[in-house]
Write a structure and sequence with these properties.
single chain, D-Maltodextrin-Binding Protein, domain 2, Methane Monooxygenase Hydroxylase, Chain G, domain 1, 3 domains, ten-stranded mixed sheet, 15 helices, about 50% helix, about 15% strand, disordered N terminus
């Protein structure tokens, strides 16, 4: 019954020009960066083309926005593509990018990422936020000792400040007059396969390398800054009607010029040919209908070749389907082996009795992660949902192992 209601609402959106009934949709957004202006423009565009009322809701933070979608309190939201997957939410299209800005006190002179982070007070944003998750992954990538990292949640008292944002304005930069911008690599190594940002992007596919060009921020960028970025995606409720999401996607992308003047990253981000494989949440069927609209089916492309060619094509397709299923099952079996190994480690966590054993378990899980990525590169595995869930589960297991080690360390200190 509930699904039927959502479908009916979507149908009303399409027939709005001849139907006097106004359909209300709600959009939640964070009040920072370009989002308020994006929200107002979106409301104007959609209400101008359909008989709809777009209710704008100012959110608190990304996790709360996702929760509102999951609880059917809102219909769509702008969310960073770095939130752990949850069933009940789908992607519609990529909207723009947020760039990782790492500011550090001018008195520091870090020669590496380790020197930048170790024994400093580091502000990484709200716990559980996209910037928090990204920095935890970077700490893991560089193999940093968490005991030497002081995570701070007071930006004023921090020596290193991490921000995920669009390009900063002059007013925003005024607050960082006593800071420098950290660059992960020299621009000469970028694009040649030897930069660390390329390695980070390989291990964490939702992260992209990004270069803040010279003089973008005046004297703060006398040289190009090599850093990272993530996409901000329009998310919708999974239960939202196909027609409604198709119209939302089509209307927004075909009116991209309306949003391009808000921020340069919006102009680059709102494209129909964005990389769908990087979406952390599966594409909604309504968005897929629009994005794949111009792709003719195999049969339509070759129908005029005649019955004989048609029969040959069908035979080839049948063979390819069988081969694909066999290859998919073979790759799934390999992923299942990684799952079995990981679950066996998780089951032993409560039994770990010393730090050394815990470290061995962590190294074992990390070795499995590396092996999985090597198999992904050699195409022995496919980067599907099972692979992504495995990587998330393995990171969760490492976190549990470290938690167990902290408990053991605390007990040892107490006993001594």
């Amino acid at each position: 019954m509930k699904q039927s209601i959502f479908f009916f609402l979507g149908l009303l959106l399409v027939l709005a020009s001849c139907n006097p009934t106004t359909v209300t949709y709600s959009f939640i957004y964070n009040p920072d960066g370009p989002n308020p202006e994006v929200a107002e423009n979106m409301k104007r565009v959609l209400e101008g083309e359909f008989n709809v009322d777009i209710k704008l809701i100012e959110g608190v933070h990304t996790n709360a926005n996702i929760d509102s979608l999951l609880r059917d309190r809102v219909d769509f939201a702008l969310v960073e593509n770095y939130i752990p997957y949850q069933k009940g939410v789908n992607s519609a299209f990529s909207f723009y990018s947020e760039v990782l800005h790492i500011f550090y006190d001018k008195n520091l002179n870090p020669q590496s990422f380790e020197e930048l982070i170790y024994d400093k007070t580091v502000f990484v944003g709200r716990r559980g936020s996209p910037s928090y998750h990204m920095m935890m992954d970077l700490f893991n990538f560089y193999g940093l000792d968490q005991n030497r990292i002081n995570i701070g949640f007071n930006i004023v008292q921090s020596e290193v400040i991490v921000l995920l944002s669009t390009l900063l304005t002059e007013d925003e930069l005024m607050g960082f007059r006593d800071f420098e911008l950290y660059s992960f690599d020299d621009i000469g190594t970028y694009g040649m396969g030897g930069s660390s940002v390329e390695g980070i992007s390989l291990k964490y596919p939702r992260i992209d390398p990004f270069v803040i060009p010279r003089k973008t921020y005046g004297d703060l960028t006398n040289e190009p800054v090599v850093t990272l970025s993530i996409d901000v995606v329009m998310m919708v409720r999974s239960g939202m009607g196909t027609i409604a999401v198709t119209d939302l996607t089509k209307t927004m992308l075909r009116n991209r010029q309306t949003f391009a003047s808000i921020d340069p990253l919006l102009y680059k981000g709102m494209r129909e040919d964005f990389d769908q494989s990087k979406l952390n949440f599966p594409l909604h069927e309504g968005a897929r209908v629009f994005l794949d609209r111009d792709e003719p089916s195999f049969l339509e492309r070759y129908a005029e070749l005649g019955g004989v060619v048609f029969s040959i094509v069908i035979a080839i397709i049948g063979g390819l389907v069988s081969l694909t299923k066999w290859q998919t099952q073979k790759k799934k079996d390999k992923v299942d082996e990684f799952y079995e190994e990981l679950l066996s480690v998780k089951n032993t966590i409560p039994k770990i009795s010393n730090i050394k054993e815990g470290l061995q378990k962590i190294k074992s899980v990390q070795a499995s992660q590396n092996k999985a990525f090597e198999m992904l590169i050699s195409e022995e595995l496919v980067a599907n949902d099972s692979f992504r869930i495995y990587m998330e589960l393995s990171k969760e297991t490492i976190g549990e192992l470290r938690g167990r080690m902290r408990t053991i360390k605390a007990l040892e200190s107490k006993n001594s």
